[in-house]
Amino acid sequence: MNARSILIVAHAYRDDTVEAAARIVAIVREQGATPVFSADDREELQAIVPALQDVPLLHDDVPLAEIDAAIVLGGDGTILRAAELVRGGTAPVLGINMGHVGFLAEIERDDMDDAVHRVLAGDYEVEERLALAVRVRDRTGEVVYETWALNEASIEKAARDRMIELVIEVDRRPLSTFGADGCVIATPTGSTAYSFSAGGPVIWPTVEAIAVVPISAHALFARPLVVGPEHAVAVELQHGIGAEGVLWCDGRRSHPLPAGARVSVRRSDDPVRLARLHPAAFTDRLVRKFQLPVHGWRGPTGTVMTDAVSIIPPASRAADADTDGEERSS
């Protein structure tokens, strides 16, 4: 086995997370690979487990180009932070759920040891998720800020007591103007996050699309839109008193938006890579994470479901679809 460098991302806010991080460091070293922390994570973790102070640091000791994979302990917020840490490299991110309700985590903590060994052996598939390239121009047209997002870019009002007037544009053509609390521009990955809370549709990860979802809009035509990934979406803030807003990307990076600012969003050339150990239907993930009621479902097998956990394995489902003429699900 070639020596590998594995970035471990974890917050020291829970005892079980700290213990899991120390356990993964030990497994990685036992297998002859190099565990790596970000500077912030090592500072937090070594305060609780002093033995972790000698774990090499990302960038200072190990360049991003040498990171083979990132193992993340936590929920979607921690996974988003990990995606930010490996941005610009090729390392896929594997999420281990530490008790959070999230869509990006691949496995549960009980399967952690096996998952780490499989990552070290390269025994996983890489799933690429569409990301967004985000650019802000001021009223003179000058680019003043550029960033990216995996979940969403949201344009929000800066003052609680005022709406902002927005103009929505698709492919450099104006679509609609309305007053609102803001607007969310989301990827399929983000369609189950802020976009969903704002009334947007759930988009399957295999569908490459961009959702545009107004937030509390005062207009007759201000419904969510879904456009193809080749289209460019822009949102302009109209001039006026109290017209300032703020741009948030994945809830992590923000930039003030003065009146007249323009936010353009398009597909990023650099997707986010997720490591997948087990094939799983997105439908099953929705049922499990949202605890959706599926009691009474018979399905192609004719077996009545009495438990939301009793999901037909993907292989069985595909075979059923072949025999009864149903369309395969992705």
How does this structure look, described?
The chain contains seven helices and 19 strands. By secondary structure, it is α+β, with helices and mostly antiparallel strands. Helix 1 runs parallel beside helix 4.
Observed structural traits:
six-stranded antiparallel β-sheet, 330 residues, Tumour Suppressor Smad4, alpha+beta, 7 helices, disordered C terminus, globular, Rossmann fold
Shape assignment? globular
By CATH, the topology of the largest domain is Tumour Suppressor Smad4
Mean pLDDT score: 89
Strand content: 25-35%
How does the major sheet shape up?
Answer: 6 strands, antiparallel
Tell me the structural class: alpha+beta
Spatial strand arrangement across the major sheet: 8-7-18-15-10-11
Uncertain runs:
309-330
Please give the number of β-strands: 19
Overview in brief:
This protein is an alpha+beta fold and 330 residues long. Helix content is 20%, strand content 31%. It folds into three domains: 5-123, 3-Layer(aba) Sandwich (Rossmann fold), CATH 3.40.50; 132-267, Sandwich (Tumour Suppressor Smad4); 279-324, no CATH class.
Question: How is the secondary structure organized here?
Answer:
Elements: E1 5-10, H1 15-30, E2 34-36, H2 39-46, E3 67-73, H3 76-85, E4 93-97, E5 107-108, H4 112-120, E6 125-129, E7 132-137, E8 143-149, E9 152-157, E10 164-170, E11 173-180, E12 182-186, H5 194-197, E13 210-215, E14 225-227, E15 233-237, E16 245-249, E17 253-257, E18 262-267, E19 272-276, H6 282-290, H7 314-324
Parallel strand pairs: 1-2, 1-3, 3-4, 4-5
Antiparallel strand pairs: 6-19, 7-8, 7-18, 9-12, 9-16, 10-11, 10-15, 12-13, 13-14, 15-18, 16-17
